[in-house]
Amino acid sequence: MPYGMRLEREAVEDFERLPQACRRRVFRHLELLCESPTALSRPSHFPYRPGFQLYSFNFVHENARWFMNVLFKYGVDEQSLFVAAIGAKPVGLTGDDDFSVD
Amino acid sequence: MSIALKNQVEASSRSADELLMTDHHDALFAFDVEDFLRQILDAAAAIKDAVVRWQRRIESGMAFDKEEGRSFHRLFCRLEEVFARTPAFLRMVRESGLSIQSVDEFQAAWNDLRAVASVDFDRFDAAAQAIERGEGRALAEVKNALWDAP
Q1: Distance (Å, rounded) from C-alpha B77 to C-alpha B33?
Q2: Residues 6+ apart with CB under 8 A from A40
Q3: How far is A18 from chain B (nearest CA, A)?
Q4: Hey, are the CB atoms on B123 and A85 less than 8 Å from each other?
């Protein structure tokens, strides 16, 4: 049974800033996250109150590799995920890209 | 927030400045780059450990100090800038026909730093407080609104 997901205003604004093609990819990744949050995420080191998880992924779009980081928290009902932020960092594809990807 | 951590990060930045001024890229340069990698990886680990210790104290009842969190965030961002300069040195070593041992570890640490640096602290704080109030829009609703938006 997939988790439900709610996005805070800031996360929605993060979405709105993305190019359409990137937005669609991120939607698909969020749907994957709802299916398997424990497998796809890990505790975050974001310097805030403890309790947030991090889901990281990347993809290539128009000569840049986009590094995406979704910060979320499990709901108290343990059936929902609350997304606080969707960090995006595009890095131009150069030889240096070889050193930035796992 | 630790003065030692701040100095550790600034020292890494100065090391990057000096490496950039090196005009011979030979085996000695490769050793210098390897040492530099170790320096920045140790700095990244030190910041993460400090955040974990700070969060444990919050879990044990210490009041959450937003300014402390903001200071840590600035440190992560500062170190991420140093990491972003590093591929140029790695490429110089590679072009000399030499190799660096710690590249995998560097990639993993850089990904972690980038994850923190790509999120604005104050906006995250606002979102976290909204989560506490039970706010938020369902994913399906957001997807319907933004899927075809330009």
Answers
A1: 21
A2: A32, A33, A55
A3: 10
A4: yes
Instruction: Answer yes or no: are the C-beta atoms of B9 and B79 closer than 8 Å.
Output: yes
- Min Cα–Cα distance to chain A from B29, Å: 18
Nearest to A76 by CA among B139, B57, B132, B140: B132
Considering only residues 32 to 91 of chain A, which have any Cβ-Cβ distance to chain B shorter than 8 Å? 34, 44-50, 52, 54, 56, 67, 69, 71, 73, 82-85, 87-89
pLDDT beyond 90 at B150: no
Indicate if the pLDDT at residue A100 is higher than 70: no
Place of tokens 């927030």: B1
Q: Please state the pTM of the whole predicted model.
A: 0.90
